[in-house]
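Students often ask what a holo structure prediction actually looks like on paper. The answer is less mysterious than it sounds. You provide the chain, you provide the ligand, and the output is a string of discrete structure tokens encoding the 3D arrangement of the protein together with zinc ion.
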Amino acid sequence: MTLLADTARFRTDDPDDLVRASLACPICLRSDDLEWHGALDGYDPSVECRCPRCEESWRVYLDPQQALRFAFMDAS
Ligand SMILES: [Zn+2]
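The corresponding structure tokens follow.
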């Protein structure tokens, strides 16, 4: 299975909704009931996502600023 990969396209001052929307499923383009898990500590921070509807998994890569933004969201 190939894991789809994308690069996040949100700005660090975007609201949570937009940040979450940037993870949207590449198949059905929904972002409301995704399962996601941040891997934010590594050299190449990313978020692993899964759409329960399409049973598709993919990974979204973040730049360091976006990773910080995500870590903040994760904690709230
Ligand atoms: Zn989907």
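The chain has one domain: 4-75.
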